[in-house]
Write a structure and sequence with these properties.
With about 250 residues, this protein is of the alpha+beta class. The chain has two domains: about 1-30; about 35-250, 60s Ribosomal Protein L30, Chain: A, CATH 3.30.1330. It contains six helices and 16 strands. It has helices at about 5-30, 40-45, 55, 120-130, 165-175, 245-250; strands spanning about 35, 50-55, 65, 75-80, 80-85, 90-95, 100, 100-105, 110-115, 120, 140-155, 175-190, 200-210, 215-225, 225-230, 235-240. The strands form three sheets. It has a seven-stranded mixed sheet, with no helix packed on it. Strands 9, 10, 11, 12, 13, 14 and 15 form a seven-stranded antiparallel sheet that branches. Strand 5 (about 80-85) and strand 6 (about 90-95) form a beta hairpin. The protein binds zinc ion. Zinc ion binds near residues 204 and 217.
């Protein structure tokens, strides 16, 4: 081959690298970034006004959880699809113009799988995962797929203003579902204690059945040889609401 050919091949290789690298590095960054809307502290005091639309949330993740405007049920985001589980236990597709007052998403790309053995409660599952995580000081996206011996999940009903604090709604109005031998996916996060005013510290998981017709916020469960997919999130971003409800909430 003459010099012209070598030059031509070199130019092609450089062009390929230049075009692929930004896409690759953007995907790497996205899959290591957690993105949340508003704060748990605001939700706790009843800031249920929608802060952003689902269309605006979508570019930030294909996996996650949250709730909808007026605290209208539990939201689960899996494989880029958004579902709302209402108090009938049914998972409804969420439209792009729906709004969310609180949610957290990421682009889930499995970094590793933890294979746990034996039968365990939800609390034991948390302890087992904790033992295998390299640090409890970083956020993790968590995914469990499979058939679960039992899961206790809940949803909450749409609220009417003036809004009651989250704890009151949950203690007085939550609707609980006991699912037996149910297959599906648990979607969520394990966050460090230092984020506790910002989001749920520790584990927060929402469930979606494999036919994507039902689910809820996980309260308890029994697990048999669970496989836990984990993604470390090096970056945690917060988008704060631009509304008077948030501005005037007592978050001190
Ligand atoms: Zn939840």
């Amino acid at each position: 081959m003459n010099l012209k050919w070598y030059l031509w091949i070199a130019v092609c290789l450089i062009a390929l690298l230049v075009s692929v690298l930004p896409v690759y590095s953007q995907q790497f960054l996205q899959s290591h970034t957690g993105f949340q809307i508003s704060t748990l502290g605001a939700l706790n005091v009843g800031v249920y006004q929608g802060a952003t639309t689902i269309a605006e949330l979508k570019p930030h993740g294909d996996f996650g959880l949250g709730t909808l405007e007026k605290l209208d049920g539990e939201m689960v985001i899996l494989d880029g699809k958004f579902y709302q589980i209402k108090t009938d236990g049914v998972a409804y597709p969420v439209t792009d113009n729906s709004k969310t007052p609180f949610s957290a998403v990421t682009f889930f790309r499995r970094e590793r799988s933890l294979h746990l053995t034996g039968k365990m409660t939800y609390q034991e599952l948390e302890q087992q995962i904790d033992k295998q995580l390299p640090t409890s000081n970083l956020p993790y996206a968590i995914r469990l797929r499979g058939t679960f011996p039992s899961l206790k999940v809940r949803s909450v009903p749409k609220q009417i203003p003036p809004y009651s604090p989250l704890n009151d709604v949950v203690s007085q109005q939550e609707v609980v579902f006991d699912l037996q031998n149910v297959s599906g996916t648990l979607v969520g996060f394990r966050l460090p204690q230092y984020l506790k005013e910002v989001n749920v510290a520790g584990y927060h998981l929402h469930f979606l059945t494999s036919n994507r017709k039902a689910g809820g916020h996980l309260l308890d469960g029994a697990f048999l040889n669970p496989v836990v997919d984990v993604q470390t999130l090096q970056d945690w971003q917060i988008m704060l609401p631009n509304n008077t409800a948030f501005d005037q909430a007592s978050l001190e």
